[in-house]
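Model it.
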Amino acid sequence: MMDTMGCLIDVERDAMTLFFWTFAILTLAGGAIGFVQAHSMPSLIMGGAFAGMLAVATQAIQNQHRWGLLMMIGVSATLDAFFSYRLATTGKLMPALPMIVLALVAIALSVKALSETAPKSEDAA
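Modeled.
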């Protein structure tokens, strides 16, 4: 049985998924930049891994699977926590601040979409 996102209108879903694809691409690019500038293999690996997870979640959202929104929230929350920690410990705004903002926007969009497409309970009075 497929979970669907039901009443979320196409224009909103298209704009949301465009943002999510952009987030995935920027995450991948950030990992590559970290590797080139600082020779950081962990940046390259984790940038690729998180970009891959964001891409899977985005593809699921495009196919109207609610679990994609839940995955987007989880991956984004993990990125937010990591980059918030990095900002707090290093004080460096780059790349922490843009990643925090992207992650928080992704969480907000996902929560909004989940709330608008919540399954309707027939037992509710």
